[in-house]
Structure formats: structure tokens, C-alpha cells
Write a structure and sequence with these properties.
alpha/beta, UDP-N-acetylmuramoyl-L-alanine:D-glutamate ligase
């Protein structure tokens, strides 16, 4: 069956928000630094037919799994982050940013000769002109991989929820994913998986599997299925308990264990920048589940939080008060 996802009552939201401060989160995945160069363009270069940006502001923020960690920490959760950075200025900057969010970084491993994944966005008059990526995505060396696995196992031993953040930057391999999911399931904690293409079918056993439209279409080699039976079959093939499919401006579809498909439209009131919206969904879903929410409640709250986040520039977090304000705005309509 297909049904609309119902909103979460205000009293229930405030209860869950209070409980989020007691949640312990383990996050394993690809860490990034998001760098923004903002300014104005008022001339064309005499050297080539390209605009010249006069930089007026530079800003750095956590990206990738680090952005998920910042979002979870902003909810009051205790966060332990596991991943790798390079022995470079970008890695040092990212560590410093994470300390500002009071995120645990004992599992962030420094790797010499491997640059910290950095995405630099050039923004003129509020519009992104170009993005420059500095990264390598080859698999980790055995010694580094073993260190990541050990750090992740320690974090899982103390967590209430595990978030796996795969951006195809080389941290994960299939045996590692299987081992981490097995460890979390042995402790009975929920597992939220945010996949990319390389290991898309490697998250069997996850509690919530959260691809976006493009990722699931590429993985299955077809346009997004709209028939409920096809979505249920996709969940079964992935061997996950719940499939949370984010659709951008079209909201999301939730296929829950028990073969029920629920749909929610986008709750965004104004879309400014979609960067990091998926990270917001992952963090809110995981922390809400660990705080006692049902999968349906967690997905609805995550969708509401993403609607707030896309109204901001760049990767950003969403506070309790912002979420409650968004709920008030919806209730008043």
C-alpha cells in the first residue's frame, strides 16, 4: 500500500528533542572540508573569457561525514567520528572545526601523502560559479584501514546509533562494511546507511538505507520506480529493513519493513542551496531513532529539518529552535 506520512505532534517533537541530548552517535565515513570563496564579479579577465571574482569572504565548514557529525552534535548528541584526513592544512582546519562542535575526533586518523578531501566552491552574488575538488579515492593502505576498523569498533561499542557515510572516497570496502554492520547489530543499535555507487549493495542489514534519486537509478540501471511493488522489491534486493529515498524538491519515499510505502512532499519553504541536505537527513534520522522515534517519525523530522537547511547557504546545521519554528509555520498554514 502507499500512504502519506503524517506529521509529528508538537509535544512528541519536544520530547524527542529532549531525549536527543542523551544519544551517543558513532559516525564512520569519508571526511571532507567544504571551503567557500564568496564575492562579486564585475569584469571579464583580459587573459581569457572568464569572469574575475573579487573575494570578499572565505569560509570553511565540515563536509561529508564531518558535516553529519556537526549536525548530530548540534542536536546535543555525543558524537564520535571515525575517518581519515591528510597531513595538511585542510586536515588541521577540519579538526579545529570539529572541536568547535565538540565532536569526538580520536578516531580521525591522519594519513601522510593523502590529501584531505576538499571541495572549494566559488560563489558570486550568491550563485555558485564553479567547484574545485582536491581528493584521491583509492582504497586505504592496509595499515590505515586496520586503524580505521579498530577505531570504528571502539566507537560502536559505546554508541546508541551507527551512521555509515560513504562518498566513494576510499574509506570503506565491502568486508569493512559487513563487519561494522554485524558489530552494530550484535549490540542492537540502529544503523543508518548513506550510500554512493561503489558499495551500493554492500549495506545488507542496515536499519535505514538512504539513497537519493540519482543513486538508486544508477544502481538499478533504470528510472526511479514509482510502483509500490517495485519499491518493495528494491528494499528486498538491498536486504535492508527500511528504504528512505530522498527526492529533492519532491520530498521522499519511505519503504518500511512490512511492505508499506509512505510518501511525504518536500517541506522546504525556500530553497537557497541544497548542499548538505542529505547529511542533515542522515543525522536527524539517526539521532531521532536513537532517541526513541519510530522510523516514520524520524523520517518526517528529517524531512522537516532538510527543508530548513536548504534555505541556508552551504552546508549548515539545523537547531532545535529552527525545527520548532518550521513546525509552527506548517501548523499555521
Amino acid at each position: 500500500m502507499t500512504d502519506a506520512l503524517h506529521s509529528v505532534p508538537y509535544d512528541r517533537i519536544t520530547h524527542l528533542l529532549e531525549r536527543m541530548g542523551e544519544v551517543r552517535v558513532a559516525i564512520v565515513g569519508d571526511l571532507m572540508l567544504d571551503r567557500y570563496l564568496l564575492g562579486d564579479v564585475d569584469r571579464i579577465s583580459p587573459e581569457a573569457p572568464v569572469p574575475v571574482l573579487t573575494v570578499e569572504e572565505e569560509r570553511d565548514s565540515p563536509g561529508g561525514a564531518a558535516n553529519v557529525a556537526a549536525n548530530a552534535a548540534s542536536l546535543g548528541a555525543t558524537v564520535e567520528l571515525v575517518g581519515v584526513v591528510g597531513d595538511d592544512d585542510a586536515g588541521a582546519t577540519l579538526r579545529e572545526l570539529l572541536r568547535g562542535y565538540e565532536t569526538g575526533t580520536t578516531g580521525v586518523i591522519e594519513v601522510g601523502g593523502r590529501p584531505t578531501t576538499t571541495k572549494t566552491r566559488i560563489i558570486a552574488r550568491g550563485q555558485q560559479v564553479v567547484r574545485i575538488d582536491r581528493e584521491v579515492d583509492n582504497p586505504l593502505a592496509d595499515r590505515t584501514r586496520d586503524a580505521v576498523m579498530e577505531a570504528a569498533q571502539r566507537a560502536i561499542a559505546e554508541c546508541d546509533v551507527l551512521l555509515l557515510e560513504d562518498y566513494d572516497k576510499g574509506v570503506f570496502d565491502l568486508p569493512m562494511l559487513a563487519g561494522l554492520i554485524e558489530a552494530a547489530r550484535a549490540r542492537g543499535v540502529p544503523i543508518i546507511a548513506d550510500p554512493k555507487e561503489r558499495h551500493f549493495f554492500g549495506f545488507a542489514g542496515a536499519t535505514v538505507f538512504k539513497p537519493n534519486r540519482r543513486e538508486i537509478e544508477r544502481a538499478f540501471g533504470s528510472r526511479l520506480p514509482t510502483d509500490a511493488a517495485m519499491l518493495i522489491e528494491a528494499r528486498r534486493r538491498l536486504d535492508v529493513e527500511n528504504l528512505l529515498l530522498t527526492l529533492g524538491a519532491d520530498g521522499f519515499l519511505l519503504v518500511v519493513d512490512g511492505d508499506v510505502v509512505r510518501q511525504s512532499p518536500s517541506i522546504a519553504r525556500e530553497v537557497y542551496d541544497v548542499s548538505g541536505a542529505g547529511d542533515t537527513v542522515t543525522a536527524w534520522t539517526g539521532v531521532a531513532l536513537a532517541a526513541g522515534a519510530t522510523v516514520e517519525e524520524a523520517a518526517w523530522l528529517a524531512n522537516l529539518a532538510a527543508g530548513v537547511q536548504v534555505g541556508k547557504q552551504g552546508t549548515a546545521t539545523v537547531s532545535h529552535d529552527e525545527l520548532l519554528d518550521a513546525w509552527d509555520a506548517i501548523a499555521g498554514e
